[in-house]
Amino acid sequence: QVQLVESGGGLVQPGGSLRLSCAASGFTLDYYAIGWFRQAPGKERELVATIANGGSTEYRDSVKGRFTASRDNAKNSVFLQMDSLKAEDTAVYFCNAPISNSGDYYFNWGQGTQVTVSS
Known about the structure:
The chain is mainly beta. The chain contains no helices and 10 strands. The strands form 2 sheets. The protein has a 6-stranded mixed beta sheet, with no helix packed on it. Strands 1-3-8-7 form a 4-stranded antiparallel beta sheet, with no helix packed on it.
């Protein structure tokens, strides 16, 4: 079955860290650029970070210097290290592979992983 499965979320205090994982099954992840997205209650899904198949990364301004995307092709996985977390980072986090020059994605959306930043 072709799917992406997110994990690693949880409850963390402001200033804390989490490491999210995006594991691929049924296909080889290293061919794809992968995006990390998040959706907070009542808000639209937004792109947080992207990692190209060559490993280059881009981040939205609000997470620059705090989040780091990486990939391990041997594990067929992509990761998002999140440091110095803030309450506004609270959201469900997803991964997917955007199709270039379109608003579409290669894969169905998974369940995501909940990140809650609260004291």
